From TrEMBL, chains A, B:
Keyword Glycoprotein on entry: no
One Pfam family, short name: TetR_N
InterPro entries found in the cross-reference section: Homeodomain-like_sf, HTH-type_TetR-like_transc_reg, HTH_TetR, Tet_transcr_reg_TetR-rel_C_sf
Domain of life assignment: Bacteria
DNA-binding interval(s): 38-57
GO molecular function, one term: transcription cis-regulatory region binding
UniProt-listed SUPFAM superfamilies: Homeodomain-like (SSF46689), Tetracyclin repressor-like, C-terminal domain (SSF48498)
Protein name: TetR family transcriptional regulator
Source species: Allopontixanthobacter sediminis
Signal peptide annotation: none
Gene3D superfamilies referenced in this protein's UniProt entry, alphabetically: Tetracycline Repressor, domain 2
Length: 191, 191
DNA sequence: GCACGAATGTAGCGCTTGCTACAAGTCTTT
DNA sequence: AAAGACTTGTAGCAAGCGCTACATTCGTGC
C-alpha cells in the first residue's frame, strides 16, 4: 500500500525515477505494442523488476493509465513537431498537409499503438476510451487552428478533415492506402 | 499431423462439425473479442476441448485464419442484409444510408472485433491484414454499386464515402460520435 | 471377427501472467 | 548509535497459455 505518488519532497529523486521508467516503458510499448506490455517485459525495458513496477505504481491498471497519459503527451509533442505551423492557405492545403504529416513513416509506431487503443476503447475500456478521446480532441483543436483564416466554419471544417484523415489512416493500416489516397485527392480538389 | 481438411467424402459429417465449430467460435469471438480467443474458451464455446480444436485445425494460427474468414463472410452477409438495395438518389443519400446502416447498434460487435483486426494488421500480422483488406474491398464494391446512377466517377465517389464512414466509425469507437456526426452532416450537404 | 485408422478424453509439460510474502538492504531522523 | 521508514531482491503462488503423449473408443473394410 506504500507508494510515493504523493511524495512531493524537494529532493525530487523519486519523481525523476518515475519519469525515467515511464520514458523507457513508453519506448518499449511503441516498439512492441500493448500485447507485450506485461509487467516483466516492461520492467526489463525500464531496467528494473516487476516487483518494483507494482511497488511504484500500485497495480498494473494504474501503471497503464499513467503510461497511456505519458504516451498521449509524447504523441502530442511529436505532432506539434511534425505538423506545419501557422495557417493553411486553403482547405485543400490544410487537409493535404495534415494527412501528409500524420501518415508519414515516423508516426507508424504511434499509429500501430493507436489502433490497439481504439480496439480497447471500442470494447468498453474506459481508461483507453478517455485517453483516446483526449487525443482526438487535441488533434481536432490543432486542425481547427490550422484552418485558413477566411474559413467560414473552421470548427466544422476541422471535424470534416479529421474524419477523413482518420479514415485514411485506418485504410493505411489494412493495406488499402490506394483507397485512402484517392479519397483524399478527391476531397482536396473538391475543396 | 492427421487433420481432415482434405476430407471431401460424401458423408459430409466432418465438414459439418467443422462448420458448427466455426459458427460457435465466431459467436464467442463476436461477444468476447480476440483477447478471449484462446483455445480453452473457444473450445468451451464450441462444446469440445482444446485438444480437439488442435486436432481439427492443426494449430492456433490456422484456426484463427479459418475463423477470420468465417467472420468476414458473416460480416458481409450482415451488411447485405442491413444495407439498402438498389441505388441511392444522390451522393448525399448514399453517404447517409451507408453511415446509418453500418453505425447501427447491431454492428457494434462486428466493429469491436474490427478494430482488433485493424490493430493486428497495423502491427504487421499478414493473416489479419489480408482478411481486413478483403473486407474493405468488398465493402467498397458495395458502396460503388449503391452510387446514384448519374454519378460521373462512381469508383472515386465510393472511395471517398468509404473513407469518411470508416473515419466516423473510429470516432464512434473512442466516444467522439459528435465529431463524426458533424463531419458526415457537412459532407452530405456539400454533395 | 479382426485389424486398422480416425476420433476423443485425460493428464500434463514448460512457459507467462499479475501479484505477494519475506527478508534484507539503505537512508534519514532523533 | 538506535529506530524507523523507504527501497529493493528472491522466491513463489495460482491461473492461464499453446500444445503433446498416451490410452482409449469407435466405425469400417477385409
Amino acid at each position: 500500500m506504500t507508494n510515493q505518488s504523493d511524495n512531493l519532497d524537494v529532493s525530487g529523486r523519486v519523481p525523476l525515477d518515475r519519469q525515467a521508467m515511464l520514458r523507457a516503458m513508453a519506448a518499449h510499448v511503441l516498439q512492441h505494442g500493448l500485447s507485450d506490455a506485461s509487467l516483466r517485459p516492461l520492467a526489463k525495458a525500464a531496467g528494473t523488476s516487476d516487483r518494483m513496477l507494482i511497488y511504484h505504481f500500485g497495480n498494473k491498471e494504474a501503471l497503464m493509465a499513467e503510461l497511456l497519459g505519458y504516451l498521449a503527451n509524447a504523441y502530442s509533442e511529436a505532432l506539434d513537431e511534425a505538423l506545419p505551423t501557422g495557417r493553411a492557405d486553403s482547405r485543400g492545403e490544410c487537409l493535404y498537409s495534415i494527412a501528409a504529416a500524420t501518415r508519414g513513416p515516423q508516426f507508424a509506431p504511434y499509429l500501430a499503438l493507436w489502433w490497439q487503443i481504439v480496439a480497447e476503447a471500442s470494447r468498453g475500456n474506459e481508461t483507453y476510451r478517455t485517453s483516446a478521446r483526449e487525443i482526438m480532441r487535441r488533434l481536432l483543436g490543432w486542425v481547427e487552428d490550422f484552418m485558413p483564416a477566411g474559413e467560414a466554419d473552421p470548427a466544422g471544417a476541422a471535424q470534416h478533415v479529421l474524419t477523413l484523415v482518420e479514415g485514411a489512416q485506418m485504410l493505411d493500416a489494412v493495406g488499402c492506402s490506394d483507397i485512402a489516397d484517392a479519397a483524399l485527392a478527391r476531397a482536396i480538389t473538391a475543396d
